[in-house]
Structures are given as C-alpha cells and as structure tokens.
Design goal:
Layout: E1 2-8, E2 11-16, E3 19-23, E4 35-37, H1 45-54, E5 58-61, H2 72-75, E6 83-87, H3 93-101, E7 106-109, E8 114-116, E9 119-124, E10 135-139, E11 144-147, H4 157-167, E12 175-180, H5 196-221, E13 225-229, E14 233-235, H6 243-246, H7 252-262, E15 267-268, E16 276-277, E17 282-283, H8 293-306, H9 324-349, E18 359-364, E19 369-374, E20 385-389, H10 392-399, H11 406-409, E21 415-419, H12 426-444
Parallel strand pairs: 3-5, 5-6, 6-7, 11-12, 12-13, 13-15, 18-20
Antiparallel strand pairs: 1-2, 1-16, 2-3, 4-14, 8-9, 9-10, 10-11, 16-17, 18-19, 20-21
Amino acid sequence: MTNVRLVSHSSVLIQKGSEFILTDPWFEKPAFGSWLPVPPMSIHPAYLTSLASTNPNFSIAVSHGHDDHLDDKFLSLFPKHTNIIIPEYKSKGVLSRLQRIGFKNIIQAPLSGVQHGCFNIRSYINMEISRDDAILSFEASDNLIVHANDNWQELDVENFQILKMVADRFESEQILYMSQCNLADGFPSIYRDYDQEQKAQIHTNRVDNIIKNSLLNANKLGAKYFINYAGHAVPFVQSAGELKDIASFKSNVEIQKACDELGYDVDVLNVLPGDSFNFEEVQNQFSGYSISEESIKQESYKFYESYGRVNKCDSYRDYSFVERGTLSSSLGKFLNGFTKFVEPRIEPTGFNTDIFGCKIVFICEDMRMSQEVVVGGRDSFDGRVAKFYMPASLFAAIMTGDSNWENLYIGYGGEVETTPKDTNIRAVVRWLAMYGYVYQRERNDW
C-alpha cells in the first residue's frame, strides 16, 4: 500500500513499505523574501533528517529551484549521501545548487523515466511556459502519484500523451493528482495600474482559471483523487498585511465545489498538512478530527509573529547601508547584464520572444534613482514599458546579491506599472526571474 502524507505547501512524504520519498522540502526560510508556509510544516525537520540518517531507502525529490521547494538550509541538514531526484533540465541551475549543498547522489529523471527503488519516476517540462519547472510522476506497481506542484496550466500535447500512457496502466482509484490551486505571483496585487476593486476581480478570475486547469488535468488523466496543495504559503509584507488573507490557500470545499460544477468525477481530498491518504481513506493528523482551515491560518500567523519568524522577512529586516554611487553602478551592471543574458537566447530558444522591444525601468523613489534598458536596443522600442518600483532596502539587497529579483515580484516586495495599461509583461517577468538567479550567483561568487 502506498501512503501519501501532506507535510507542507507542496511537500509530501510518499511511503511504500520501507521506501520513502520526500518532495520539495521547505521549513521556515522565507521564500521570495516574504513567504512562510501556512500551515507550518507538520513534521519537524529533525524527524525527517533522522529518518534519512537511519534508512537507506529514503530519498528526496526536488521539482525546481524556488525557495519554497528547495530550502537550502533545511536540505543542508540531510546526510550528503541521500539520493536526490530532480527533473532532467537543460539548465544545470538546480543540479549545481544541490551540488553546492554537498549532495553526491543526484539522479536526473528524464521524460522517459528512471527506476528508483519501487518507483519509476518521470519529469514533464513544458518549455513554452517554463524552462526550469516540471511535473514529476511516481509510478509504483499499484499506484500513480502526479506531483504537479506549480504546473497548473493545461498539459501540452506531448506531456499529456506520455502521462496518459502511464495513467492508462492504472484504474482511476489508483491515481492521485496533486496540483496548485492558488495564485503565486504579484499580478495584480502589486500593480499600480488598478484600484482595489479591479485587483480583487482580476485575482478571482486568475484563481478560478488555475483551479479549472488543475482539475481539468486530473480529469483528463482519469485520476479519481486530487490534493489541493502548493498554495499553502502566505506573504508577510509589513506595509500590506491584507496580503495574508488574499494570498492564502483556498479551502478544499471550494475546490470540490468547482470540480462538481465542471462535472468531473474527481474526489478532492479533505486534507491539510499532517493528514495522510492511503488510496482507501484519509487519515487525519488527529484521529477522526479535522482542524478548521481558518483556525490553522490564524494560529500560524500568531506563531510566526510570536517566535520572530516574521522579522526574518524582507520588509521587516534592517539592511546595511550601501553608498548611492555603488548602488547606481550595480543597477547599471544588472540591467546591462540582463540584456546580454536575454538577447542572444531569444532566437535560439524561441522562449517568450515578445520581450523584444520592451523598455524595462527600475525605480527607487526613496533614493530618486532610476535606470532603463530596451531589450534589443533603443531603436527596437515599440512603446511598451514595464516599470518596477522598489523600496530602498529591497533595492539595495537585490543589487548586492543579498536578495533575489523574484522577491520584488513574487514576494510582493515592490510595485509594477505598465504602459500602455494592461500590457502583458509575462515575458519580462519570466526572463527577469531567470536572470535574477544568474546575477545573484555572480554577486555571491557561487
């Protein structure tokens, strides 16, 4: 029998006999400078590292390199001989990061699959959406578990065909699909382009679309069971306390209601971190008793505030002073480095090519500083402008490599304005997200 325990956010502990796979570990390191897991991790890290130290059949699967899926500090506690499973990416960023932590046994799972213990593990990458995020599937003799994490978009043709081929080997009751059902970026919350009513409507529409596509994927594969996860996180931003409720996870009742309205024969399991599912029944952390979702949210907030975890988030930290001239020089290097990173890759990759001709402006109003760059050169400017506003503390932290650019956007640390209004800057955001890690590695000499 296969057992799946929801640990936190998108971290689950899969057990079959004496074999264990822990996915996407995240404890309390603020992801994107502001996110903390809500509810908190349901198994203390010491128990998991002890299990890894004493059981040679313990492995860790990491889907991608975001801090809410790859917690370096937590991972550094595990024995360095622990088997680590990652998707087979063309980019070696995730591989290199895990190697820097000290892991020796890193297994790259291709689309064709790799046998690891009793599981055949595959990775599914949609290169048109992301070059460094993936779905993982874990195929045992009697069950299929799909760990879709942040990949809520409708499955592309190639990945669907292969995953459906795998799923067709199982009865519907043997398949569990797990996917994000919540919004995980700054649009529209940090956009100056919209008022609060407009933001609320855009947010609702986006979340509804995420839920719809996640359930669609599960239904198309014939999965009987579904877990709502990868949205169990909340941003703690000092000037925007309302984000805690806006961005927190959607209830399982809401997801099941959406599923019923869509007419899908999929059971949304009523689980929270700490609960388990063995393909026969849900086992609550507290036998026979389900914790209130609203209660665990509020108690999580109180815990993080009482124990000082919130003070480690970007907007609560005190950063060292950095001289203005140094910051101006660093900003120039960041933007010039960005264009040198993007421009040679646009044509060969065909990835988000509409970034070409867009003007990107970084603005720190506190310091009355701004600089801009046009991808493709000034002569290619087509009238589209993406402005990113940063408070002085975060601006300095990003420029010095202490924080990552994604802390501004996904971590709700800054603000955005587009010209013309409603311009879709998805391409700009995706390329900046990739380059942000390159710049940070270079600044820290990783």
